[in-house]
Amino acid sequence: MSTQLVRLAAAVLSSEKGRKTVGWVLAAILSPVILLTAFLCCVGSGTAEHNSAVVSAAFYGTELSASVPEEYRMQLTQMRGSFSHLDAAVAEVNQKAEGNRLDPIQVKAVFFALCFGADTLSQTDAEAFVACFCETETRGREETGETYEVAVPLPMEEVYAQLSVWRGRAVTAEERSNAVKIYSMVMGSAGGGTYNGAYEPGGNAPMELEASLFTDPATKNSADLAIYAANAWNSGWGYVWGTFGQVLTPELLQYKISQYPEGVGDEANFIRSHWLNRRTTDCVGLIKGYGWLNTETMEIQYGSNGMPDVGADGMYYNAGRKGSIETMPDTPGLAVWKSGHIGVYIGSGEVIEAMDTRYGVVKTKLQGRGWSHWLEVPGIKYD
């Protein structure tokens, strides 16, 4: 991609006269990756902070600075309209899935990277886009002999091949890289980072969850969320993108590698040697796993109990009660948040967090970790 072309696009689009002259012709002439890069440059010189603000505005409807041109606000409004249709299409596919399911945030991150600047998708077009992520298998029920259809997610290599056909040109390596970066902004880092502060690693003896551990198994409440998180730490849970407390079998790991070839595939050797056949989660999965836990069967059932499948930032923005970290009540079971990451406060100034691939689930001090806000997790009862 030409640096000069990006700079030209940014310069033209930051000028009122240029915008009126060029209008939306750029969307037809420039590839989405150039238009997206120009937008990020126009908003904030392409810095990580401003890029995160752009992604948050698209995914969660947060406010942008007054300096952002109206045309770009329209772009984000159109993107949110497409996201709504994509969410509906993914939900329909996942209703037909058995076991592995599509990640709605990943689908939207890929669309954001490939189609920034495009008009809002119709529901039919959204379904066609989502269809590139899966295939349909016909299966039979042994007891009745009846057949039924199951949606099976595809490896991302096959997804990108189908998306290339869908839009009429090949998906580039840069677009794939942008999709991973956008997903990371929403879900948090997959691993490989470093942390120099004090932390306590989890235990080595897995402890199975039992309903008797909870104060009130019949409800989803803050005290039991803290107990659940502490159990994950005591049991030495690992960290794998897109997991939420399942046992990481070889089959599940292979699926996650195919689903996230960069985020999980790049860390596959470490994951195999440290987390295989143990329970794993990512940061927000630690909370969603409790929300999805059936305390009668002690099985984690995806999407159950009214808890949506959202990222760390989505959970924060959806919260009805939240505040800056300086105003945080001393209530075990509150979540603590900073952009792209979330943890569970367990009291006494301590937090349980799924830190990243290299650390797993650890215990840290509330102070000194850069948490910016606290929140009551939607769907969890707080006294």
Keywords, separated by commas or semicolons:
alpha+beta, seven-stranded antiparallel beta sheet, transmembrane
Describe what this molecule looks like in 3D.
This protein has 383 residues and is of the alpha+beta class. The protein has 15 helices and 14 strands. Strands 3-13-12-11-10-14-9 form a seven-stranded antiparallel sheet. It has a three-stranded mixed sheet with strand order 4-6-5. A two-stranded antiparallel sheet has the order 1-2. A hairpin with a 4-residue loop joins β7 and β8 (299-300). α5 packs across α6 and α7 packs across α10 (173-187). The longest helix has 26 residues, at 70-95. The protein is globular and about 55 Å long. It starts with a helix and ends in an 8-residue tail after the last strand. This is NlpC/P60 domain-containing protein. It comes from Brotocaccenecus cirricatena. Keywords: Membrane, Transmembrane, Transmembrane helix.
**Into which percent range does the helicity of residues fall?**
40-55%
Shape: globular
Strand/helix succession: HHHHHHHHEEHHEHEEHHEHEEHEEEEEE
According to DSSP, the number of beta strands is 14
- Main sheet overview: 7 strands, antiparallel
> What structural class do you assign from the helix and strand content?
alpha+beta
Strand order of the largest sheet: 3-13-12-11-10-14-9
In a few lines, what is going on in this structure?
This protein is of the alpha+beta class and 383 residues long.
